[in-house]
């Protein structure tokens, strides 16, 4: 008997789907960026989104062994600026998955919260995918409390469901 496997490309596809839906929603409702927010040390939704895309970019850079972008340099003044950073990260993730990398190789890095640490490329990759998903779920709750409702289903089930 074999166990089911979620591949890196499948996780990346779900990650991109969620991000694309949020980008469209926020482009239509840019005022959401100014909503107060206390998630991940943010003061506004724009700062939460900065955190989300900064983490994506910095993990992708670590995986690819590229110089890390300074967190404070990540723009969050508009939906376009926020998702331009996301697009850079996605490009690096795709290139890394296409490259001949050792995904079990341990990488040393410094986190903003916990200081020096190390983890395998594989662990870092999946953490990046699920980190964004977790914060987008928190954002979904926050915007509902302010009268907004996302117009898509974010559950992974809908990546492959057939409805009658």
TrEMBL record:
Binding site for a divalent metal cation: 51, 131, 135
Xref: InterPro entries: DinB, DinB/YfiT-like
Keywords, ordered alphabetically: Metal-binding
GO terms assigned for molecular function: metal ion binding
Family affiliation: Belongs to the DinB family.
Name of the molecule in the record: Putative damage-inducible protein DinB
Highest taxon, organism lineage: Bacteria
Gene3D superfamilies listed in its UniProt record: dinb family like domain
Pfam families named in the record: DinB
Originating species: Edaphobacter aggregans
